[in-house]
Each structure stands twice: as structure tokens, then as C-alpha cells.
Design a protein that fits this description.
Elements: H1 3-16, E1 19-20, H2 22-34, E2 45-47, E3 50-52, H3 54-65, E4 69-74, E5 77-82, H4 91-96, H5 105-112, H6 116-130, H7 135-145, H8 153-163
Helix pairs in contact: 1-3, 2-5, 2-6, 6-8
Length: 171
């Protein structure tokens, strides 16, 4: 667990006000990191639901355990909101101080408005690009690892190209 990483997860929850689901949070963090936002130092592996970081999960558990972030089960998903103490103040401001919006805020908000399957497709596509896949090889690998999201490939690819994701690619 990294205190800086955990605080950045809490800032993400603060700026988005609500994040519906752990998978959504994982994908947003991965895409922010792929967009060059080094505040998210987490490493990802390709997992069943796309890129996954044990460090993100640990940091999220930590900020929930110390009540900086609230975790509430709604239906089948956990919903994350910023914790409020008995006096009604935001706990995160007590730790980090009120500051201007992080540079990643606008992008994170745009990502949070997308549906979760699209985020899974986009995050997987970006992960594969980071690993050095290109062109037909990229499409073939995407179809292999995400056969249920084949229809999302073109939209995810267009989004990634428009945003120039990822910022760094393996050589």
C-alpha cells in the first residue's frame, strides 16, 4: 500500500463524487495512468475483467477502512463516495488540504460517464497497446482476450486514438 496512491484514489472519489463499482474504479485509474497522470503509480496486469491492479484494490481498501471513502453495497455493486465525519466535513481536506482541481479531473469525469463494458474494452485495448500490440495483431489479441466485447473494439479504438492513449508504448 502506498499512502500517496491511496490519497490519490480518495481524491478521485472526491472529484467524481460517486464511482459505481470496483471494476469501474480500476479501469478509470488505469486509463488515467495511461494518459500520463503519474499521480497513479499503480501497476496493472491483464485479468479476467481487463487490467487489474492489486495495489489499487489495496489502496481502496485502506481509504475505506479509515473511513476517508465510504463503500456501500447497492444492488450487486459497491458504490464509493467520499467519507464525511460527524461534523459533516470532508475528511480528505483535513489530510491533504483544499487544493485546486487535479489535472486529470476532466478526463476522469468523462470516463466516469461511460458505461462499464466500454471502460473494460477501452482499458484492455490501451493495455494491449502499452504491451506493443498494433494494427491487426492488436485487434486479434483483443478479440482473443475479450470475445464478449468484440463489438466495442471500434469505438474503444476511436476513443483511444482521439485521446492519444496510451501516452507511452512498449518498444
Amino acid at each position: 500500500m502506498s499512502l500517496d496512491g491511496a490519497l490519490e484514489i480518495a481524491r478521485l472519489v472526491r472529484e467524481l463524487e460517486e464511482i459505481n463499482g470496483r471494476k469501474r474504479l480500476q479501469k478509470i485509474v488505469h486509463l488515467l495512468a495511461a494518459n500520463g497522470h503519474t499521480e497513479f503509480p499503480h501497476r496493472f496486469i491483464l485479468y479476467y475483467y481487463g487490467p487489474f491492479s492489486r495495489a489499487v484494490a489495496t489502496d481502496l481498501d485502506f481509504v475505506c477502512d479509515v473511513k476517508v471513502v465510504n463503500e456501500e453495497l447497492k444492488g450487486e455493486k459497491y458504490v464509493y463516495t467520499l467519507g464525511v465525519d460527524d461534523a459533516g466535513s470532508w475528511r480528505l481536506d483535513d489530510v491533504t488540504g483544499a487544493e485546486e482541481l487535479p489535472a486529470w479531473t476532466e478526463f476522469a469525469k468523462a470516463l466516469n460517464e461511460e458505461d462499464t463494458p466500454f471502460l473494460e474494452a477501452l482499458s484492455t485495448l490501451v493495455y494491449l497497446k502499452e504491451a506493443g500490440y498494433k494494427d491487426k495483431e492488436l485487434k486479434d489479441e483483443f478479440d482473443r482476450v475479450k470475445p464478449h466485447l468484440k463489438k466495442q473494439f471500434d469505438d474503444a479504438s476511436e476513443y483511444a486514438n482521439k485521446r492519444k492513449l496510451p501516452k507511452k508504448v512498449a518498444k
